[in-house]
Amino acid sequence: MTVNEVIDVKGKSSHIPDTMKAAYLKQVKEVEVEKIKVPSVSGKEVLVKMMAVGICGSDTHYFNHGSIGKRMVQFPHIQGHECAGEIVAIGEEVTRFNVGDRVAIEPGVPCNTCEWCKLGKYNLCPEVQFLSTPPVKGAFVQYLKHREDFLFQIPDELSYEVATLAEPLSVGIHAFKRGSLEPGQTVFISGMGPVGLMAILAAKSFGAKHIIVSDLEELRLETAKKFGATEIINIIEEELESRLNEITDCLGVDLVIETSGNTNALSSSIKYVKRGGNIVSIGFPAQDQVPLDITYMLQNEIDLYTVYRYTNTYPLAIRILESSIQTVQSIITDRYDLDDIQQAMDKVSNDRKNTLKVVVFPNNKGRVLK
Ligand SMILES: [Zn+2]
Ligand SMILES: [Zn+2]
Predict the structure, then answer these.
(1) What is the torsional sign of CA 369, 196, 334, 364?
(2) Looking at domain 170-306, does it have CATH number 3.30.930.10?
(3) Interval 234-284: pLDDT, tens
(4) ω before 135 within 30° of 0 (cis)?
(5) Span from the CA of 238 to the centroid of ligand 2 (angstroms)
(6) In angstroms, what CA-CA distances link 231 with 189, 210, 333, 354?
């Protein structure tokens, strides 16, 4: 199927150019916009005009270091996986969407046939093609080809930029599923970067009664308050453990979510959780080896869970975003056109104090909020 002019069943047509802009990471800390061919779609594939793409912590890490753990970038590389856009062409077997539909894009497309896919744990599929995880190219492009079953319609009220937050919110949702958060429980979320902040929204939707959070940046803590954190702890001004003891009457919390990736924060989290409680680790630690007092964990039956991406979270993530549009908007601190992506990456890398979520607009002009 060619994609130059596509007419859907409603007779709506979309003009699609032959070439598009794509942002290539040429080497560490250097990104350039180039022209490449717009992909064509067939079968169950859909072509999405990219309207907004958020910059993730993992994008920043690859940008600054060229690798995460043993996973190395193969230059030139295209980053970006937190994305939303408008459908402009559909393959001949597509049944769920039409041209003109607005969608959030779940970035990881698994094989659907392996042991893990069949178990529903498709985040662990060894064949998964996850946008922007090397060597798979990502979403900092004007048009993206994606399989229809990993696209999710978004309501009219939801802007594209807010819809991109379904991705980091999914991590939070998956964390609470892993840690079995129950209504009325008390959680402590360590680290108020975008993933920690989105985890507050997830905690509320799972019915947490107390949501205690910590960070050292004022902007992050203020935003946490807006998002619904019930207790804010600035770890520079207050001693974390004694403050948590005070809040929980020395019982500890039911669940700790560690998002900061700080090695000490993870080691210490066993002291913050109550007997029989759970810890969920989300943030990649700065060092691979983290010391844990296993004897203490055994004596108190403390369980440690890890989170690797997520499964089946997008529909809920979109509903949560829809119910908190006004609040959630405040996490977006910076907006850039795709042409200015170098600036966008530099800003998020160098200005942690004033930056939360940075969103890039591949089809720019007016930074289409709808
Ligand atoms: Zn992400
Ligand atoms: Zn699979």
Answers:
(1) negative
(2) no
(3) 999 999 999 999 999 999 999 999 999 999 999 999 999 999 999 999 988
(4) yes
(5) 46
(6) 10, 8, 23, 22
For 18, what's the count of Cα atoms within 13 Å in the CB-facing half-sphere? Answer: 0
* Residues with Cβ within 8 Å of residue 208, at least 6 apart in sequence: 181, 183, 184, 185, 186, 187
Average pLDDT over the chain, rounded to an integer: 94
pLDDT digits (tens, 9 = 90+) for 166-218: 999 999 999 999 999 999 999 999 999 999 999 999 999 999 999 999 999 99
Residue 83: CA atoms inside 13 Å, Cβ hemisphere, count?
34
Residue with tokens 């975008």: 194
From ligand 1's centre to the CA of 301, what distance in Å? 31
Distance 180 CA to ligand 1 centre (A): 22
CATH architecture for the domain at 5-165+331-361: Alpha-Beta Complex (3.90)
Residue 12 reports pLDDT greater than 60: no
Q: What is the C-alpha separation between 6 and 291, in angstroms, rounded?
A: 57
- Intrachain domains 5-165+331-361 and 170-306 with the same fold: no
The span from the CA of 72 to the CA of 285, in Å, is: 17
Q: How far is the CA of 119 from the centre of ligand 2 (A)?
A: 9
Domain locations in the chain as residue ranges:
5-165+331-361, 170-306
Instruction: Write down the pLDDT at residue 3.
Output: 46
Which ligand lies nearest to the CA atom of residue 113 in the structure?
2
